[in-house]
Amino acid sequence: MKKDVPGLGRRGDTVQVKDGYAWNYLIPREIAVPATDGRLREEQSRKEALKSKESRLLEAARQDAARIQGKRVVVCARAGQGRLFGSVTARDIADALSRQYGFQVDKRKILLEENLKEMGVHEVQIQIHPLVKVTIEVEIKAEVKKKNEKQSW
User: Fold this and answer.
1) How many domains is the chain built from?
2) In this structure, are residues 5 and 31 in contact, taking their beta carbons and an 8 Å threshold?
3) What is the pLDDT of residue 80?
4) Helix or strand or coil: residue 125?
5) 82 and 136 housed in the same domain
6) pLDDT tens digits, residue range 99-139?
7) Which of 7, 19, 65, 120 could, after both became Cys, cross-link 134 (CB 3.0–4.6 A)?
8) φ and ψ of 7, to 5 deg
9) CA nearest neighbour of 88 among 76, 98, 100
């Protein structure tokens, strides 16, 4: 199969169909190709390469997880009298991770049910790989104004 077909098979599968269905529908529309010995060997080698690539990605994700597990990220946000003005988002956390540890993470992989709206320490999960999740601590502190800093409106 070259494409997914509901009820028949997925891309890369070898399926048994009637000759008329194959020659009159699947092959002319380039949904499937005849299963010759060469094509079967080619598909097998493609599956092996895909499997080895997936195992390399999983190992790299585990190494990244070990590197970042348990780290504390400090995020400074505007606050007044113990409350934040606004909230801390996944993007803020991703930027802080990049700035403090040099670890690039996509903001969509930071699992926040809702934005963080209180100062203090929060535990946040990051899904580095579909099989690898890591927990970090995010400490939200009030942004410190400098004495001579003017308010910009």
Assistant:
1) 2
2) yes
3) 80
4) strand
5) yes
6) 998 889 999 999 998 888 888 899 999 999 999 999 999 99
7) 65
8) 85, -10
9) 76
